[in-house]
Amino acid sequence: MLTLSLVPLSLLALAPRLGLCDDSSDSDSSSNSTATPNLKQNSNNCSCYAIGSGSSNSSEFFSYHRFYDFRSLATSADQFTTPDPVSDDEDQGTEGVVADDAGYLNSTGFMDDWEIQNWSTNASADFPVRMVNTARNIYISDDTGNTDIEYPTYLTMRTVRLADFSSASEMQNNQQNMMHASVRMRARVVGASGAVAGFFTYYDDDNEADIEILTQYPSNQYEYTNQPSVSKDGNEITAATVNVTMPSSDAADDWTQWHDHRIDWLPHRCNWYLDGRLVASNSYSVPRKPSGLVLNMWSNGGSWSGNMTEGDAAEFHVQWVQMVFNTSGPRGGPDAETKKMRRSARLLEEREWPEEQLGPGCETVCRVDGVKAVGYPEVAYVSMGGAAGLVAGHAVVWCVVAAVGALLAWS
Asked: For the ranges 170-174, 348-352, 359-363, which has the lowest average pLDDT?
């Protein structure tokens, strides 16, 4: 008699011997046991990615994975030096990255996926200091505190207060069509009061999920927001923001130290994590539009950000960024076809994968949490012949097995 059942995880190791739940027909799988996955794209041996999210640790599933590692960009000691800030006369944002950093920051690999910004804002009553973004404030630094890598590095984003303006930094990921995601970074913030470090998904001011670290706040305080946080009549929307103050007695929670930061943007809720701990959750104004990922470091003299003293600076240090996400629409974002196409958007369209590449279903489910090395997803379980399917951003993964005598013997 033919019996259908679900395969326990303990039997997955036996499945190849029995010819069950075998993904060896995948053209990429023949060398997966030894090859390093191309982490910028989907890992070769993964067809979807599972994360635990929320207090119940329920699973959420995503189709795409990216990992950007800034920890080992040097090939010799003291390879990178800190560039001088812009001068008072350099106030147009047209400066490029310095020569030491150009090999990486001007490389095709970086520029295909990231765009350094140079937009500016004028001073106003609410924001009394003019702000100008410049590539000069994004650079690679030697990480003297990291002993795990021979020549360790990290990416630095800086803001500096000059006499007539604030020199800031921002970069956005060119994947502008994320529709629900788990975005993470390992980072710290150091420097003077009056600056804001931001890590957030963004479509517009009404579709934005933020992690913000304000250097005028105590170093154990973090701000997590779903925008908008201010109403049209200028009043604060208290439901928008969750301010989290970690125990002051625990210096390990200080934002001047390295931490893993994470936003899970889900269909009806955003969750925020610090070093794997769920610290905030909010169902108010969850982003509803396909979005991109932005990192910035800025100051504009406003009452919220604080007013940085002339000549002072603050820095946002980033070791890595990881993204797992689903998509909707073109990779340049929902407005890509109606606005002037940027070089980055064109490149993304050229690299778009055909839908067939994902296969008929989620055959190999990989986890990104609890892995041996961050950024390297590991196979969690395998389904048979694409029987698993992604439905409304979630996956039901199962493996049907014909329980013949051989399988019964193992069970």
From this structure: 348-352
My answer on whether 170 and 145 are in the same domain is: yes
Residue 392: count other Cβ atoms within 10 Å of its Cβ: 7
Residues 277-328: pLDDT tens digits? 999 999 999 999 999 999 999 999 999 999 999 999 999 999 999 999 999 9
pLDDT tens for residues 135-153?
999 999 999 989 999 999 9
- CATH at residue 247: 2.60.120.200
**Type and span of the H or E element at 346:** helix 343-350
Q: CA–CA separation, 154 vs 295, rounded Å?
A: 14
Strand 364-367 with 48-53, pairing: parallel
Domain co-membership, 216 together with 305:
yes
CA–CA distance, 137 with 140 (Å, rounded to integer): 10
> Higher confidence at residue 18 or residue 110?
110
Helix, strand, coil abundance in the chain, percent, nearest 5? 10, 35, 50
- Following CA atoms 210, 63, 363, 354 in sequence, which dihedral angle do they give, to the nearest 10 degrees? 180
At 256, give phi and psi (nearest 5°). -80, -5
Number of domains in the chain: 2
Q: Which stretch of DSSP H or E encloses residue 104?
A: helix 99-105
C-alpha span between 24 and 16 (Å, rounded): 9
